């Protein structure tokens, strides 16, 4: 993975700073670790980033003295690292980094009640704390070329891993054994990890959209829903294919054809300027017209990046509009306990002129 192109990490802080005035704060305390990674390259498990016009400061503890310095320097982020072994010391460093700002933004979705109370009462008693919402979410939703390259590399590993393992299904493994083989292949191909806990749902288990791999043996006549991904430099891939062991029944065949058509309609709808709710509608309509609207149990998709689920949501209620650089999944499904489940999912990049899927494994049903 050493041939991945660089990302413009420094530019992210500049874009964030430009949003602060509109959010009603002079400085922002970033407490979500994934956002900290996005802004600084730091991958540790503890830290707070103070983003201020005069400079950003990453405060962490002694375990990350060298790692934080190395990662921040490698990313090119305009941030300095301050380390203290104690929480009290870290609070002092943060106060220093915020430079007496009168208004401090907090990430409302990523600050616990206890932390907010302690910031207000102990750490910054003289400042006004301002809740902010979705600042980083909006920035992270639009990927740069370096991010797209990582997402594509992750998706390519998943494609290859499925190609290498799918024939195993015909030998009747347990769901868990198949998931393990797939996960191993993903790691063997160079991913740093799997993207999330692999879903393998066979027979009736496939009718539960997020089935965890069980000790059930895959049998002839099963639909098998396989939803998995690879992690490359922090970026997730996400793809679902549904395979059939043996011959599908007439109903299963209808489910497969319908979800395939629904998914294709959704992918075809993805383009800049299109509302995410429209993509959802394109998928849902096909399934509803066939009378199985109630069996499509979830939203159509989600953004993918440093988190497996991020903005923008692709759902009935989503208010987002697609722009070039968004990366979203399109994953309709039909779930009928007596017949099993069918879901087909691709990850799609919104381009200037339309869209381009990056998950390319064939949608054939034979193992
Ligand atoms: Zn998925
Ligand atoms: Zn997904």
Automatic annotation (TrEMBL):
UniProt keyword list: Aminopeptidase, Hydrolase, Metal-binding, Protease
All residue ranges annotated as the Peptidase M24 domain in the record: 150-352
Domain named Creatinase N-terminal: residues: 12-142
Source organism superkingdom: Bacteria
Gene Ontology MF term list: aminopeptidase activity; metal ion binding; metalloexopeptidase activity
PANTHER family on file: AMINOPEPTIDASE, CYTOPLASMIC PEPTIDASE PEPQ-RELATED
Protein name (database record): Aminopeptidase YpdF (MP-, MA-, MS-, AP-, NP-specific)
């Amino acid at each position: 993975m050493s041939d991945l192109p660089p990302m413009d990490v420094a530019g992210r802080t500049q874009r964030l700073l430009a949003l602060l005035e509109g959010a009603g704060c002079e400085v922002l305390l970033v407490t979500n670790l994934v956002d900290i990674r996005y802004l600084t390259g730091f991958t540790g498990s503890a830290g707070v980033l103070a983003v201020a016009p005069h400079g950003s400061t990453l405060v962490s503890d002694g375990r990350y003295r060298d790692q934080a310095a190395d990662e921040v320097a490698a990313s090119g982020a305009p941030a300095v690292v301050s380390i203290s072994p104690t929480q009290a010391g870290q609070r002092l460093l943060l106060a220093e980094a915020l430079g007496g700002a009168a208004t401090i933004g907090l990430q409302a979705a990523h600050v616990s009640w206890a932390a907010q109370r302690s910031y207000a009462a102990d750490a910054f008693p003289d400042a006004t704390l301002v809740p902010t919402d979705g600042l980083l979410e909006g920035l992270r939703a639009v990927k740069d070329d370096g991010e797209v390259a990582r997402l594509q590399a992750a998706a390519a590993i998943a494609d290859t891993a499925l190609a290498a393992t799918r024939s195993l299904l015909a030998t009747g493994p347990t769901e868990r054994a198949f998931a393990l083989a797939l996960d191993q292949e993903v790691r063997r191909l160079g991913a740093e990890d799997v993207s999330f806990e692999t879903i393998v749902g066979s027979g009736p288990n496939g009718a539960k959209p997020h089935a965890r791999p069980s000790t059930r043996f895959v049998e002839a006549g099963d639909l098998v829903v396989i939803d998995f991904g690879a992690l490359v430099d922090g970026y997730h891939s996400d793809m679902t294919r549904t395979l059939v062991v043996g011959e599908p029944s007439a109903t299963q065949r209808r489910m497969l054809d319908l979800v395939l058509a629904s998914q294709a309609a959704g992918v075809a709808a993805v383009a800049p300027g299109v509302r995410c709710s429209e993509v959802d509608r394109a998928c849902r309509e096909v399934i509803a017209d066939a009378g199985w609207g109630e069996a499509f149990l979830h939203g159509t998709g989600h953004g993918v990046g440093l988190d497996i689920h991020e903005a923008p949501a692709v759902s009935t209620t989503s208010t987002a509009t697609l722009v070039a650089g968004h990366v979203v999944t399109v994953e309709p499904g039909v779930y009928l306990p007596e017949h099993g489940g069918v879901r087909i999912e691709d990850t799609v990049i919104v381009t200037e002129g339309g869209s381009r899927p990056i998950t390319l494994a064939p949608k054939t049903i034979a193992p």
